[in-house]
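Comment thread on ticket #2218

A.B. wrote:
> Attaching the input chain for the structure job we discussed in standup.
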Amino acid sequence: MKRQISFGQALATVVGSVIGAGVFFKIGTITAQTGSTSMTLFVWILAGIISIASGLTISEIAASLKINGAIKYLDYTYGRVWGFLFGWAQMIVYFPAQIGALSSIFGVQFVSLFGIKARYSNLIAILLVLFLLGINLIGTKFSSKMQSVITILKIIPIALIIIWGLFNPVKIPAPIIPLTVGTGHSFPTAISQGLLSALFAFEGWIVVTNLANEVKNPEKDLSRAIILGLSAITLIYVLINYTFMTVLPIDQLTNNNNAAFQASMKLFGQFGGKLVTVGILISVYGAVNAFMLTGMRTPYILAQDNLLPFSNKIGKANIHTGVPVVGAFIVDAIAIIMILLGNFTVLTDMLVFVMWTFNTMLSVAVIILRKREPELKRPFKVPWYPIIPIISVIGGIFIVVSTIINQFVLSIIGIGLTLLGLPIYYYMQKKNN
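C.D. wrote:
> Ran it. Output below, let me know if you need it in another format.
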């Protein structure tokens, strides 16, 4: 594959992968879980801190190991089976579920905006997947440039809401101190549930490591893209949620999936509802493209090591465009099946648990490699070592343990689906030997 992705394009992929529908829809869930404006903002900030700590930590591996993506980082540190399981979970459920869920949200918002019958929303979602598949098949350079443009466009409506909200002369009080929870809420439960919901909105940044072999200057640009991207996302999330809470009282925000629409109506009038719907469409479109751009490379990476059946086909990229075509068809075909089946929330929540399990292992890997290979050239070193990696590890353990406690069946299913890759792994190992 050619090194053709610039720092700006890598940064756009980070921001585009993370900022999707969550920025508009999570406020209703989190206010219901916390019951207060101060705790709501606190969990957003805490989620950002954990994500940035994780990004800083994993960036050291990304800059130090001249190999492609988190799958290879796990291979290098723990052994090939762990890298394979991570890639398997991404290929079978994570990327298809993200693409399917976001495309379905796009379909629902699209038919609502244009007054089309609701039954056509799935058709719109599938057409979006096929359209973006075609765009990505044109070539990595083209799709990366398009991602940069879409990322800028999706920020515009978000910026308008934030700016209008901050300068809105008629604000509802949204105290950020003292840190309290609502009546009937316990402090530990509010933090754990609210943090889990907020962290879901940060999901997706690690997929940019799949582009490591295509970034022009991976030693510097990959870590910079992750850190700057997550910092910008945290600021955006905090500001837009604060804006929502100064426009609508918390009882109107609680469990309200249309909070962004209603807040925009109050800020901009009738035009506001249409504006935020267009903003959601652009935002979701960009997120789907970012997950597709990075997701198609997961089967390609696994097939390069001959770890999948038909690896000789899956592990090839188009000689003219650099696109792993078969990998793209695999991920998008599963995504379309998921759109038709419909239950995306369960799949997505389950894979957040699985992905954070591996993210925690990657954070621990930095500590292991510091001990095991002290002479390894590290163009980027995580600052304030070992404090930042410890924050990342503790945050990851908290997410995993909280999910097991609060959603035990879901976590068991997630582990089970991941372990389904083991028979394939050992079959391919035996075949290769």
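A.B. wrote:
> Thanks. Noting for the ticket: The chain has a mean pLDDT of 83.
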